Amino acid sequence: MKETTIVDGEYRTENAKVSIDDRGFTLGDGLFETIPVYGGKPFLLGRHLNRLEAGALATDIHLPFDSEDITKGIARLCNDNGIVRGVARLTVTRGAGPRGYGVEGCNMHTWTLTVRPYSHPSDEKRREGYKLAISAIRKNRLAPLNAIKSTSALDKVLTLNKARKSGADESLALTMEGYISSCVSANIFWVKDENLYTPSLDCGILPGVTRQAVVELAERNGITVLQGKFETAEIRNADEMLITNSLLEIMPVSSVESVFEGKPPGSVTLELSRFYNELISGQNIS
After folding, report:
1. pLDDT of 140-182, one tens digit each?
2. What ranges make up the beta strands (E) of the chain?
3. Domain holding 166: CATH number?
């Protein structure tokens, strides 16, 4: 079966291509969102689009579509491609333009949408938990791209590749000051004395959609959430640890290089996972 995709608002089953001069290809000049699909419906789509709009405003990239275009597009692609549980990838770039970094002449922005199957981590992996390396690359917590899902991701590619070669599943970054920041593609939480801790937004982290949902679910169910600037000493004696993103959902952590060793999944992690699964089933959050 041929895959249906969307390129610049047109449904295509073949020749789904963008220009060789597209700045998303030549310069990484673009934005994207990764949206989980459950039961053929996008989960927390409004929040993903809000973050994309914030990134577009910060980068002066025009979004040549509206939320209705994306809602209808995902529904059509799920139907055409037979996707019940999968992942939608929405990408927008500044489009084709002349050579160089200047944006003059970039008048036709490009956007694409795909919906494809996605295999979630196995139950065995969730019981085993993720191993985290600590990145040698420090994050500038004031860098303007921290809060943006940019297609300029070579630093993340290099960091994760090094972690995987060392036998880890992910890599935890620290800020220049030594504060805990985030993983390459996930936000981090830990539990101590039944309180939930996570780095605050001013630690150079991406404002994760799943992160925010977990914070809200925890607070709604009587779990105290503490956000702030924390050094690695804070996690040495943590009771449990977890990371979150839209595709991993909530993943227990078994170790952080030379800092933390645990026996996942912990009781609070299991409770949060139950709350999150109930949220997915209800799809009742805006």
Report:
1. 999 999 999 999 999 999 999 999 999 999 999 999 999 999 9
2. 5-7, 10-12, 30-38, 41-42, 86-93, 110-117, 130-134, 170-174, 180-183, 187-192, 195-199, 225-228, 240-245, 249-256, 260-261
3. 3.20.10.10
